[in-house]
Each structure stands twice: as C-alpha cells, then as structure tokens.
Amino acid sequence: PAAASEAKPQEQPAPTVTLEDIQKQVIKLATAGKKADVRTVVSEYSANVKVTEIPADKYAEVLGKLKALEA
User: Fold this and answer.
1) Are 51 and 41 contacting, i.e. CB atoms less than 8 angstroms apart?
2) Choosing a second label site near 4 at 20 to 30 A (CA), which of 13, 44, 62, 71?
3) Which pLDDT score is estimated for 71?
4) What does pTM read for this prediction?
5) What DSSP letter does each residue of 7-67 carry, written as one string?
6) Alpha-carbon gap, residue 25 to 31, rounded angstroms
7) In whole angstroms, how far apart are CA 22 and each of 5, 31, 64?
C-alpha cells in the first residue's frame, strides 16, 4: 500500500479575506446590536475607527475577531 504521506491531500491555502468580507461582517454585527463591540475591534487597527483604513495584511485577523463576536 502507498505510504500515508503520499495519500495525504495538500493543505489548502487560507482563503483571501477582502475588505468586502469585513464590511459584510460589520453590517451583520451592527444590525445585531453589537456596534460598540465592532468599534472596539476596528479601533485596534484604525485610529479613525474606519474599516477602510484597516491594513490589508490584518483583514484575516480582524475578520476572525469580528466573527468571534457572534458567539
């Protein structure tokens, strides 16, 4: 039989998170009454608390924190 390492599927790269993904999550949370929580997360990455000012390399991290607010 083939070695287990040969049959193992390759790891998929993490999906790319876009500004649009973050904006959708912000809207979802804001309509759920979590605006203050959203502002807290966004303010960690943007001095002016603007989603559009979050650095692109932080999108995945921000989205993770926003999704955690849903719990």
Assistant:
1) no
2) 13
3) 78
4) 0.76
5) HSPPPPPPPPP-HHHHHHHHHHHHHTT-HHHHHHHHHTT-TT--GGGS-GGGHHHHHHHHH
6) 10
7) 36, 14, 9
